[in-house]
Specification:
five-stranded parallel β-sheet; about 45% helix; alpha/beta; 8 helices
Amino acid sequence: MEQQQSLDIYAKIVWDYLQMHQPLQKADAIIGFGSHDKHTAEWAAKLYLDGYAPLIIFCGNEGVGKDVSGFDGQPEAAIYKGIAIAAGVPEKAIITENKSTNSSENVRFVAQLIAERNLQIKTALIAHKPYMERRAYATIKAQWPQPQPKIIMTSAPISYEEYVSDSNYSREFTLNTMVGDLQRIKEYPKLGYQIEQDIPSEVWEAFSNLVGLGFDKHLIESQL
């Protein structure tokens, strides 16, 4: 019991850091980054229906994704589009990009799609998994061609406890992924993949403790 309590304390420190906690504002588009998490599509649909933007762009291709299950071989973008339409978003308000297979490609291919269609996107709401907000932000700032739109990160308002209690998002899988994503926030700027992000000592200590507890399945192999 004591170890479980400590684990959850470390996990919530990392969970909180990985989110950007940026206030919502109206935008020119909502961009939903694909993954296994269908909350993202539901949240993007709610943002549209609440009048935050007139357009949704979903991106992602399940083909070689590392964390997608239950999508029956369909691109994440297509699954997300179906979820949004079922929630009441008109099909004409949704654009899909279904070739990207990782965060860098999400950014580059969406930026390319926007340029090709001559869409005027000055402000974009980026919808993602709660624990992918900061890493996605760092990737966008490093890889989106200039001039970049104003980026506002957002995710479904769900707590860590609620998230890992959902049978679709197990505690073990979520923690391994969070730990790996935090490591990438530290290491990827050295490779030019992301911009630098300050990591408070308390957050890195929580990371080290989680690795020590065995949550190392998503770490970069060269750093093991």
